[in-house]
């Protein structure tokens, strides 16, 4: 197995043979993500040993990519001086993410070894609402003044840009730190040294507010293809930026959360292999109980039509096909609508357009599937055209109903300020199953005179 352009076995061999100098040289040329993976795969006592070998310019970057458990282990194993170096070298957003996950006693030690300036900045970030723009932003950005010249801007960037998350996009503020414009390094390079920043900056600024939901921030990144987004407080003062790597991380977290909700589970903040059995059970059991008891409605419908089933037991053989097909159709619609709402393609005002479109899609799908089923039924049960007709008519109606339910429920959840993902496969399937059974037995009773 290779890590980047390096052989994992060779790294392990160097570690086992205690050739630490050569191991340090190899790691100094590796990507920090690969080094973090290498450390995570070591035994606990070797994790700290390998981490301490890292060149100081790499140590903080590698630390930010480690799992929280490994970060805690290293923090508990190093000196206060080493811990102070780590916390000072970390970007503020990475430090905040780490502290939000660590136990309180570890957080206390970390903050005790930070400088007063860093500690105040971290505490400020920790006060922002969870899942807000303020909670994912960083304070490491380049801020310029409108009266600077291009030459002065370049000098400022060279002097202060080393520890910044990005230097390509620079933000122009006034004396009160109010955001006034944006200028890129490309703009600076394409203009003479004596050009004043205010003459070339873009005053049409796209920004977020500290309390804005992080999902809205991600939508802004997607809509405008941004590399970073300035974040201002309620007085329009620039307090930080969200970079594209943070936006991608939020996308991954939100997608994972939606997948779990769509599978009828409460979201888990830990990776699957690091989540305990009891926690996994706790996340899944409530929805399973809810869905189990709601599925009793299907049994109630069957009991209501017990007489029809006794007269023609063959009716039961078509129930699984009807329920599965309608359930699949409802899931298709809900998936498309949830995805459309997530990326901003569908809004609540589009509800009638969505219903009309899904009605037509359901009708076409239903007619094609019904035609195929009618041929099969006539071949399998010759001489029973009314039975075949009852099945295919029920199939068309059930599919149309499923498509409408599948598109309406996520939008209804959004209207009720709930996550549309909860109105996904399991819940929609349960509702559609009951509707399909009611349609099927009513149509069958009417056409076959079973009432």
Automatic annotation (TrEMBL):
How is this protein situated with respect to the membrane? Answer: Multi-pass membrane protein
Please verify whether the record's keywords include Magnesium.
Answer: yes
- Where does the chain cross the membrane? 359-379, 385-409, 421-441
Provide the GO MF annotations for this entry. Answer: magnesium ion transmembrane transporter activity; metal ion binding
Q: What does this protein do?
A: Acts as a magnesium transporter.
State the family it belongs to.
Belongs to the SLC41A transporter family.
- The entry's protein name is Magnesium transporter MgtE
Which gene is the coding source of this polypeptide chain?
mgtE
